[in-house]
Amino acid sequence: MKLKKTIKAVLNLVKRPIRLEANISYLSPSNRLVGKNIIVTGGGRGLGAAMAERFVKEGACVLIAGRTESTLKETASRVGCKYLVLDVADVNSFDAFLREAKQELGGIDCLVNNAGISLHEPTFFDVTPETFDKQISINMKGGYFLTQKVIKEWVEKEQIGSVLFISSETGDMMDFRPYGFTKVAVNSMVQGLAYLFAKRGIRINAVAPGVTVSDMTGQGTDGNLYHKKNMLGRVYMPEEVAETACFLLSEAAGCISGQIITCNNAKSINARWK
Ligand code: NAD
């Protein structure tokens, strides 16, 4: 009994969170997005704000859209972009939103469907019709119909453009939570739409991050990046996701469409020797 206790104590010591730092490399800003007008939904904070910041540094004209005006305003002034209030669950507001966004930006070249929520229902029995519908309408339906409106105009004007969805590593995994289902659907949407519009020069891709520092996950927000389940033993930084997003929107990715770039260091690979 005593020996068991000692072993447990030692194991607990080993398991104790280690403080980690992320060593991130960036490509030097090189005007990769000059001339591009980009909308980022959910851009007030988290991954959306990091992408907006990166896109501005690369010369893009960016508009962030989200629900909370005070957050948008603060981020927009820090990053140097424009903002508009938008609830992506309110599909009926999209026409007015896009009209205003076009006025603010002078046109739309890229749309980043980033707004999303995860309600983290602890068990299958905690999922309710309300939590189910909310995640479907924000993570999946909103991006679908906003993209439909944006692409419709590109097609009518014979304009090229690029749409980026922020999916998740969960889009590649089984799940009992609606959050996971929404990301599987996003991946399907990306591939289906990419194929549909490829010959018109409209590219549609996704970035699928692993667990990344954000308010949504609550991971790493206290500065402790330790995360045992990620391959590097740490959570990812929003800036790492932003770097990949930036590449996918740039002309350097001109031959890439219908791809879901998973940013989790091969965690999703179903290796035989796992
Ligand atoms: P976050 O909670 O920090 O940011 C989400 C943003 O979306 C917020 O600005 C929020 O206000 C906005 N939003 C939520 N509902 C909205 C609505 N109805 N209308 C408009 N805006 C709305 O979380 P995050 O981690 O930055 O998430 C951004 C995206 O990244 C999400 O789609 C999420 O699923 C995805 N993602 C995140 C992680 C992660 O570990 N953080 C991993 C994989 C994928």
Molecular structure report:
The chain is of the alpha/beta class. The chain has a single domain (31-263), classed as Rossmann fold, CATH 3.40.50.720. It has seven helices and seven strands. The protein has helices at 2-15, 46-57, 69-79, 94-105, 129-156, 178-197, 238-249, and strands at residues 37-41, 61-66, 82-85, 110-113, 161-166, 202-209, 260-263. Strands 3-2-1-4-5-6-7 form a seven-stranded parallel sheet, with helices on both faces. Helix 6 links the parallel strand 5 (161-166) and strand 6. Helix 2 (46-57) crosses helix 7 and helix 5 (129-156) runs parallel beside helix 6 (178-197). The radius of gyration is 20 Å and the shape is globular. The model has no long low-confidence stretch (mean pLDDT 94). Bound molecules: nicotinamide-adenine-dinucleotide (NAD). The site of nicotinamide-adenine-dinucleotide has 27 residues, from helix 2.
Oligomer: single chain
Q: What is the level 1 CATH name? A: Alpha Beta
Order of helices and strands: HEHEHEHEHEHEHE
Radius of gyration: 20 Å
Walk me through the topology.
Blueprint: H1 2-15, E1 37-41, H2 46-57, E2 61-66, H3 69-79, E3 82-85, H4 94-105, E4 110-113, H5 129-156, E5 161-166, H6 178-197, E6 202-209, H7 238-249, E7 260-263
Parallel strand pairs: 1-2, 1-4, 2-3, 4-5, 5-6, 6-7
Helix pairs in contact: 2-7, 5-6
Nicotinamide-adenine-dinucleotide (NAD) binds at residues 41-42, 44-48, 66-67, 86-89, 114-117, 138, 166, 168, 209, 211-212, 214-217.
